[in-house]
Structures are given as structure tokens and as C-alpha cells.
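Build the 3D complex.
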Amino acid sequence: MTAIASGSSLLGLALVIPTVVAVLVMLLGRLPNLRDAASLVGALLLFVTIGALLPDVLAGARPVLPLVTIAPGLDLVLRVEPLGMLFALVASTLWIANSVYSIGYMRGNQEPRQTMFFAAFAVAIAATMGVALAGNLVTLFLFYELLSLSTYPLVTHKQTPEAMRAGRVYLLTLIGASMILLLPAIVWTAFVAGTTDFQLGGILGGKIGPLAMAVLLGLFVFGAAKAAVMPLHRWLPAAMVAPTPVSALLHAVAVVKAGVFTILKVTVYIFGLDTLQATGASQWLVYVAGFTIIAASLVAMTADDLKRRLAYSTIGQLSYIVMAAALASPLAAMGAAIHIAAHAVSKITLFFAAGSVYTAEHVTKVSQMDGIGRRMPWTMAAFTIGALSMIGLPPTAGFLGKWFMLAGAGSLHEWFAVAVIVVSTVLNAAYLLPIAARAFLKPAGGPVAEAPVAMVVALTATAAGTVLLFLFPEVPYRLASALVSR
Amino acid sequence: MSLVAMLASEATRFTIVLVMVAGLYIVIARNNLIKKLVGLSLFQSSVYLLYLLPGKIFGGTAPIIDPRFDVYANPLPHVLILTAIVVGIGTLALGLALAIRIKEAYGTIEEDEVLAKDRGPAGAAARKAGPRG
Amino acid sequence: MSFLAAIDQHLPVIVVLAPLLGAVLVALVRVEIASWPIAVLAALISAAAAFRLVFVVEQLGVVSYRLGGFAPELGIEYRVDAVNVLILLVVTAVSLVTLLYARQSVAAEIDGGRVPWFYAMMLVAMAGLLGMAITGDAFNAFVFLEISSLSTYTLIALGRDRRALVAAYQYLIVGTIGATFYVIGVGLLYLATGTLNLALIVERLPDVVSPRALIAAEAFILVGIALKLALFPLHAWLPNAYGYAPSAATVLLASTATKVAVYLMARFLFGVFGIHVEIGPVSVTGVLILLSLAAMFVASLAAVFQRDVKRLLAFSSVAQIGYITLGLALANPAGLTGAFLHIVNHALMKGAAFMAIGAVLLRCGSSRLDDLAGIGRTMPATAVALTIAGLGLIGVPGTSGFVSKWYLVLGAFDDGKGWLAFMIVASSVIAVLYVGRLLEVVWFREPGKAALAASEAPLSMLLPTLLLAGLTIFFGIDAEMPARLAGAAATVLLGGHP
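Done.
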């Protein structure tokens, strides 16, 4: 009982800490050192808070924190479960790395409006915690929208016409899709099931026909446009104009993960894997996601701009998770959950490396990267590890998730999914490995000159994390198996 | 009730409906803002009659208590209609005032011309090109 | 103590008299700088009385006040219960906030000499609306209806554009026809029952021999009120009236006028005729549902194509009224609660939206959509209020619009009409389009010359705007208070005719 009580106060803290950080950052705007310290300390505190929740959740506790009752039957409530725990853990861990990196990046590039940047960042983290810990769909929706809004100033940080255009596409796509598709889906669910609470095994089983279920799933999948399933993927490459720490936030820490997290959470806790499996309502999504994976990989091969190539890589990787969710088998769902963590830590490494290259040499194109690995060995070594993880090769984290997905698809005899995973692995290798090869094999052409220390530390740490996650996958594995147990 | 009374009562009802419909028709069909108001007043007047009809009691007298009479007309409708007439006068006055202001602003009180002027040169041109205004 | 008790006894009449006497005072004094404080004071007294009435009604259930001490048979009875006390509260509170907001907007939009008349007319309109809501006498309601209408025509005609005159004239014609229809219906009721007191009419209805008289009365009354509340397709007067009236007047009209008419319709439908009565082969609820749906879709679509923001919001009002009448037509507790909640919520958010546009009009001199481009950069606080109001109109969770629509959807399901719930959600998608179009221009479009030169709205306009926007958020997160009041109103209405 006391464990649950303390658990719920931890849930509250997870929202309060980043909010307080945002306020502090605004107040300390004139004192950059203190301001950045506030971000760092806040990130550490949040990590500790989320970490303190972990033992309880692994032991089977599900702390609840009711926030407010809007009207009877309409509550805002936080409730942690394994998948949300995993997402919160990933986001809070990477906030630390990202804070270190951002401080180096913002100072190294002498970016303007840093106070606004760090404040909006903290609000985005608060929203992410809300998404991760939401106990029902209405709560999730609110924080999901808050995440879209709070990241808008980050995407348009440079305030150039191009950045403003990207921000417009970003916000209109994300908010438009969630208003037109996600919200109706939630209302529909609420009145079919009589609740929007996340419950293991789903709340829709037997209450809605297979066809309606397929349509409803479509509303959820495309409504959560943050998951960037084609054709709602264009906002992600457009948002590449933002500073690299923002790209890292979008691709690794929060935004796209909030999208796939929503989809995975909905398939597990609203539809229920067994229900989806029995009705076949998610079969169409396997094909759509599979198409997205292949198409995004092909586009990535043709992109010369490094960040654009990484962006299309993200679109492909996200659809692995969507496809795994659509397979609706426990093994694949486990793979999806683990891949959320694995992709986060490896993609953030890749973006950190890209930003590091940009900060040190102002290089943005793949074709300009000849021999850069000899001048920036740490950076490009980290990049290579991240690339291996994207492809899914051991000893990196990317292998784990893919393995489970492959096993899940194979056990269901979903040969289409198996083929997609195999083909896309080859494609991933084809668009990522040449970069590493070019960087290390071409002549150096200059002395060793790394990016600022803070950035190198951050990207080395995440690269190490990518390997460590492969060697010690216990926490994500146990959380993922708790997700599908029973 | 005598036959005369019945006929009289039917005739009153018929008159009421006639005035009502005629007034409404003028409001809808006329283009002139003043004539519309005339129609509106007719329409309202029919309602005054509608109320006064049941107030009349044959053989009754004005509702002032007097030992010589014991049948009185119902005073309430008269009171109500007095109020309604006041409201009607207010409406008519305001309507006329608006018509004057419209005349000042547009130079006409024909509704179609007023509307056409706000549609701009394109509207005016289209009006000229058409067979009739 | 006895003084307070004496005031408590006369609360119903204070609510109406304060603005009426205030109007007379403003018109007599006729000094420009004195008019605004008098108007605010009058509205404040009225609002305080209405606020107090809420508590009195919660204790007593019904407050009956006999004007001049005459029995209801002959005299006029003011009758306050859970239904109209909510309306009184909304009208007085929003009017007060509107008047607080009005000072600078009016100074900019109205010629100096006419300012006192403007405030006098605002107060008369307020008194008329309050009178309509508070009276228990069908004919008295007509008189107050005309009082509010006549002052409304004047208010609209005070707009700067000459089209305001035409809008006022057209509204005068339509409004008078509507009011006359209403009074014809009341006359027929009087012929049938011999009384004008609503409560007494209800008592005597069972004895009425001729159902045809009742049917005719109901038809005339409902059509007459429908004109006032701009029920689709009788809404044609509204976009022009709202579009060309001075900003402060638009705020008052948009947030209160149609709501009072809705109340009157609810009173007659539930309190007098009974909602499930059929007029010949036609069921009232069926027609009402059909017209509400038409309003929700057609008016929303029309809003998408407007070029002037005031007109855009006006068409949105027609659509939102559709949601309210839909709630009435559902005639179950959840649906009615939704309708009355939406009366409150729509008053708040549409008030905030029109206030924001009024501020833009003051600073940029235009309310055309194109001229609003980029005002998010130069008038951020105003734009935020407009955004919140817009999200409320869509019904986004976290705003009060979501809560009222939630109840409406609940009501549709309780009635076994799942398809209606679908229609509510589908029509909200159209709201996404017109609100999205507006917000896209406000935030993402490159500012034009006027917008670049604009500065943030003055504080005296900004604070009331933000107050209403803030309440839209607050009631979206904690709807306990409005939901309780609306629920009580629904219970009373349904209890009248079980």
C-alpha cells in the first residue's frame, strides 16, 4: 500500500520536475551557467524519479495518480504500466544526454534564443512524461497535443523562412491529423467500450465488428501522425531545418516515439493483441507499414543531405514498430517495445554525430564527408556503432528488437513481414555503411579536430549505451515481457 | 348566441386572417423599404384584432364597476394590446429612421438597388447587363 | 440582516431593473465619460443579484415574485428556477465582462456624441434579455423580447460600415415577424386557456377542448422563437447582424441573445407543450434534430468559406446553436445537460473570440481574414485567446467545448442514436477546418502592413478577453460547477413533463 502511495507521488514528480525546470530556465535566462545547470539537474532528478518507479513496476505494481475529474466518467489520470515505464525511462535517460549535448551545441554554434530553447525543451519533456504515464486515452491525447505545441518553437528555432515553413507543415500535419482522426477515434472508443482506460487485453473485444475495428485502428494509426506512417510522413524530413538537439528530441527522445508508443499502446491495451489476432483487423497495417519501411529506405539511399538521410531512416525504423504492433503477436509486440528503446539510443547517437560534424566542420552532406572519420575519430566511431544498430547487427541494441520481430513474424508465418525485414536490413546497410566507409577509408586531408567536449561526451555515452543495451538487455526485456504476459 | 353574432364573429376572424396575410405578403413582395414597413404594420395590426376579439362580450359594458351593470368586457386584452401597439409604434419609428439613414448612405430605398451597390462595380455591371433590374 | 433579507426578496426584480434604470440614467446624463462607469455599475449590480439568486434557488428550488403584488392570474409573475437562473447568471456575467471590455473599443468605433446612446442601448438589450429569461408570463416575455430586439437593431445600426444599416433593417423586418408570430401563438394559447401565466397555462391545458388551437399555438410560438435564436434555416439575418455591428455589441449578442431565445424555446417545449407532442404527422423532436444537424453541417461549411472573420464566427454561431438545439431535441438528462452546458461554454468561447477580433479591429482596422495574417507575432496574447476559443469551438479536450460535446454524445447514445453521436463528431471535423484556416492565417502567414504596425491590445480589452478564454480552459478541466448547474436545469425541465 505504501509502495503504491509513494509510486503515485513519483508519478506526480515526473510531471512536476520538468515543469519546474521550464520555469527556472525562464527565470534564470540572464545567467546562462545557472540556467543550463537547472536543465542538467532537472534531467538527473527526473531520471532518478523514473528509476525509483522501476522496481515497483517490475514487481507488478501499477501506481495510479488521479489528476482531476473533468466530469463524471471523464478523468485525467496517470497510471504506469510496463510500456509507459520503458518509454519514460528511455526519454528521461536521453534527456540527460541531450542536455549535455545541447549545452555544447548551443554554445558551440552561438545559437540565439537559448533560454526559450531550453524552456520549450523542458515543457516537451513534461508532455512526454504525460504521454508515457497517461492512464487513459483522454489524458494521453492532452499531453500528446501539448507535445506538438511545445516542440513547435523548437522546430522553428532558427526563424528563417524555411524554418517557419517547416514549422507550419509540422504543426498542421500533427495537430490536423490528431484533431480529425485521433480525437474521433478516442470518442468512438469511449462510447463503444464505455471507458478509455488502458486495460491489459483490450477494452474493445466483442464490442465492435472486424471491419469497424480495422477502420478504428486506421484512425488511431494515422491520427498519431507522429509515427510518420506514409503518407503522413512529410513533416519529419521538413523538420530537419531545426538545430540538431531538436532533431534528436524529435527522432529519439520524444516526438516520433510518442507516435509509435501511442500506436503500440492502443494495440495492446485498447484493441488487445488477441482480439486483433482473432479478427485480422490489423492485417492491412502490416502491408502499409511494410511499404513504408521499404519506400523510406529507398528514399534514404538517394538523399545526399545527411540529416535527410537519417530522417528517412527514422521513418523506416518507426514502421518496424508499427508493423510489429500490427502483427499482434506477443513476440512481435515485445520486439516493438524493445525497438523503441533500441532505436532511441542508436538514432540519438547518429544525430549527435551529425550535429558534431556540423559544429566542427559545417558539413551537412554525405558527399563532403570523405576522410572525416580520421579527423573526428570519436564522432565517427560512434556514428558507425549507431549505423550498425540501425541495420540490426550484433553487438548493438538494434539486433534485439529486430530479432523478436522476426521471430514473431516467423511464428505467424507472415512471410511478407519477414521479407520486408530482411530486404530492409540490406537497404539499411546500403545507405548507412557507405558513409562510415567514406569517412574512414578516404584520406584524412586535415588534422584531428573534434567537436566541443560536451558533445563528444554525450555521443560517446549514447554509443556506449547502444552496445551496453545489447549486452545487458534485462530491464527492457523484463518490461517488454511484462507487457505481453498473461 | 344569435345568428348575427355568429356571422359577426366569423367575419371578424376572416378579416383578421386577411389583414395578416396581406401584411405579410407586402413585406415579402415589396421592394421599397417604406412599403415593407407598411406591410409589417398591417401584419402587426391583425394581431391586435386577434387579441381584442375575445375581449368583446355582447351586451357587456366597459369594465368599470357599477351597480347598474353585471356584464363587463374583459379588460386584459385591451391592456395587452395597448402595450403591443406601443411596441409596434417603436418598431415602425425605428424602421423608418433606418430607412432614412439608408437613403442618406445609399441614395435609394429600393432594396435591390441597395444590395447591388454593396456588391461593388462587378455587381452593378452585372445588373446593367441583365434584362431588368 | 433584515436589510439583506429584504434584498433577497426583491432579487428577481433587481436583476432586471438595474440595467433598465442604468439605461435611463445614461440617457439622461448623456455625458460621454460618465456613461461607461454607470453602465458597468448597473451590470455589476445585476450580476451580483443573479449570483445571489443562484444560491437562493439552490435552497428554495423556485423563487416566485409577484410584480405589484397582483396574483399571477392578473398580474405578472417573475419565476426563477434552476433553468433560468443559469441563463440569468450567464447573461449578467458575460454582459458585465463585455461592458468592462467595451470602453476602448467603443471609443474607437462609435462617434463621440453617440457613445452614451450606445451604452444605454447595451443596457436596454441586457434588461430585455434578462426579462425574457426571468418572467413567468408569456405576454411579458413578448414585451421583453421586443425590448431586447429594438435595442439590438439600434446597436447593429451603430456599426461603422453602411451595410450595418441594411443588416439592422433586415433584422428588424425578420425579428418583428418572428416576435409577431410568437405573440400570435401566445394569443391562441390565451384564447384556449384564458391566462398568460405559463404555470397556469400548464395547469389548464388538459381541459382544452380543441387540440388544433394548441397545435397552431405551438407552431406559431416555435417558429417565432426559432427566428430569434437563428435556428437553421431561419438564420439568414445573423451573419450580417454580427458581422457589421460594433465589436462590443457583437460580443453581447453572440454570447447572450440567441441563448435566451434557446431558453424560451426550451421552456415552451418542456414546460408547456411537452417535448414529445406531435404536430399532426410531424414530431417536434424529429424536426428539431433534422434542423440542428443541418445547422451543424451547412453553417460550419459556410464558415469555412468566409473571408471576414466576424462572419466566419457568426456562421460558426449558427452551427453551435445547432448543437444546443440538438441537445434539447434529445430530451434526456445527458443531452439537456449538454445543451445547457453548451449555452454556458459557447457564451464564454464565442465571447472571447469576438473580443479578440474586436481588439484586432481596433489595432489593424480590419477584420478580414487576410488582414489577420501574422497577428500572432504582433498581438500574441490576443491571438492566444482567439486560439483557445477556436479550440473550444472544435471541442478539443482540455477546453469546455469538449465537455459539452461529450454530454451531447452521451445523450445521443442514451437515446439509442449512435449515428447522431457520429454526426456530432463528424461536424466537429468541419470546425477543425474553419478554425484551422483561421489559426493558420493568424500564426503562420507572413504579417501584412497593418498587422506589422499593430501592437498588443490595450490591457482593458485584453484582460476580459483572457478571462473568458481562461474560463474556457478552466471549465474544460474542471467542469463540476457548470455541469452541476446545467444538470439541475435538465432535471427541472424533464421533471415538468415526465
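The CA atoms of residues 308 and 368 of chain C lie 4 Å apart.
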